[in-house]
Amino acid sequence: MNNKITKLLVANRGEIAVRIIGAARALGIPTVAACSEADIDSLPARLADEVEVIGPARVDQSYLNVEALLQAARNTGANAIHPGYGFLSENADFAEAVVKAGLIFVGPDAQTIRQMGDKSCARSTAQAAGVPVVPGSDGELESIETALQVAQSIGYPLLIKASAGGGGRGIRLAQDADELVREFQIAQSEAKAAFGSGAVYLERFVERARHIEVQILGDGEHCVHLFERECSLQRRRQKVFEEAPSPALDAQLRHHLCQSAVRLAASLNYRGAGTLEYLFDETSGEFFFIEMNTRIQVEHPVTEMVTGVDLVQWMLRIAGGEPLRLQQDDIELHGAAIEMRINAEDPQRGFFPCPGVVDELQWPQGEGIRVESHLYQGYRVPPYYDSLLAKLVVHGDSRAAAFARAATALAQTRLTGMATTIPLHRRLLEDAEVLAGRFDTGTLEVWLSKQGASLGEALAEEV
């Protein structure tokens, strides 16, 4: 099969679709925006060379409809599909169907997606590559009796995790045996409903852990890392605020962590962009692999800002048959970068989604400032999809400089017509613990609960 990409179908929406279209355009590749009927007037549809409507607003009839996407490629003559993140990006059956249709899937092969998408199998793969994992069960557990027996060796508290889960979903906490009995069946049912598989496994709950992930690139024969991202500030296990590099790692720990990621990716003969996620116990200095995302991540811009490497362009180059010419020594860490996710959510109503029409829109500009967004003035944000509106990304020569630039950029941002999480980011940038880099995955939830009712009022005053 000729691997040269002559036309790219973007099988996604929102800001990542805009990002992919921009990367393809820089490489001279024409693009087709695959849009639902609700997204016909979206920015990706306006920016792409062609638009193909793939179905109604419902994702199962559009962005998750494999046959509709393949037909869109046939209709337009696209010979490659970029899945972005979410939707079908980590669906091995989709990747397989794309290749069987004679098209190029921009990502790793179906076998790798399947192997690392099964979290239990991913743990075994990491262990085989000599990468430390969180103590837990050997594979999936089918009965509560077996789970109780295994839990005795792991210890409490522990997590019940869906084997097919990801993105922080499909996880339940059990503080003791009674909670394990109560939560186990619920976890199986939720996993079955959310991911199509009820398989679960157990993992020790590392309290006060940091969530740190390593970006890798590979072409099937050669792998490199692009350092780590700090993603510990999370609400309901969803990332809110990311930065690179992590303020918790020294040079030696960073080297060991990143080398472990390369070792695991190399064992897979990995092809494309991928992210290996770890828990880092700052007290003991230990890190544990938890899962791999075989796709581009939402937070990839902070890595691009500190390394100068365009990850999406490299995804397209590798999918098009180009060898990864980057050597590890070519990739250097410069300064620090921060990403703030701006969501259409109302802090006064428990971050309830609140889509609307963009009234005023003014993004900050200047050195070290980057905005990834699909908004434009007058755009009606549809209520059917993820609430992410934009990513405001800044870079500075140091972490302190990046925080100062982030505050300035937020002050210059004007987005009206709906409630957003912009005021939350203003507060986080002023928080002494965040500024000092003293936080873990539980920090933001505790911070929000301590604010109580006053948070909504305070945030409302800042809008």
UniProtKB/TrEMBL annotation:
| Record has ATP-binding as a keyword | yes
Q: Sorted alphabetically, which keywords does the UniProt record give?
A: ATP-binding, Biotin, Ligase, Nucleotide-binding
Give all residue intervals belonging to the Biotin carboxylation domain. Answer: 4-449
Q: Which GO terms describe its molecular function?
A: ATP binding; biotin carboxylase activity; metal ion binding
Query: Has UniProt tagged this entry with the keyword ATP-binding?
Result: yes
InterPro entries cross-referenced by the UniProt entry: ACC_Biotin_Carboxylase (IPR051602), ATP-grasp (IPR011761), BC-like_N (IPR005481), Biotin_carboxylation_dom (IPR011764), Biotin_COase_C (IPR005482), CPAse_ATP-bd (IPR005479), PreATP-grasp_dom_sf (IPR016185), Rudment_hybrid_motif (IPR011054)
Task: Identify the residues that the record assigns to the ATP-grasp domain, covering every copy.
Answer: 123-320
What pathway is this protein said to act in by its record?
A: Lipid metabolism; malonyl-CoA biosynthesis; malonyl-CoA from acetyl-CoA: step 1/1
> Which reactions appear under catalytic activity for this entry?
N(6)-biotinyl-L-lysyl-[protein] + hydrogencarbonate + ATP = N(6)-carboxybiotinyl-L-lysyl-[protein] + ADP + phosphate + H(+)
Q: Please provide an example of a Pfam family that matches this protein in its UniProt record.
A: Biotin_carb_C
Task: Tell me its EC number(s), please.
Answer: 6.3.4.14
> Taxonomically, which superkingdom?
Bacteria
**Gene3D superfamilies xref list:** ATP-grasp fold, B domain
Q: How does it assemble?
A: Acetyl-CoA carboxylase is a heterohexamer of biotin carboxyl carrier protein, biotin carboxylase and the two subunits of carboxyl transferase in a 2:2 complex.
Q: State what this protein does.
A: This protein is a component of the acetyl coenzyme A carboxylase complex; first, biotin carboxylase catalyzes the carboxylation of the carrier protein and then the transcarboxylase transfers the carboxyl group to form malonyl-CoA.
The entry's protein name is Biotin carboxylase
**Source lineage:** Bacteria, Pseudomonadati, Pseudomonadota, Gammaproteobacteria, Oceanospirillales
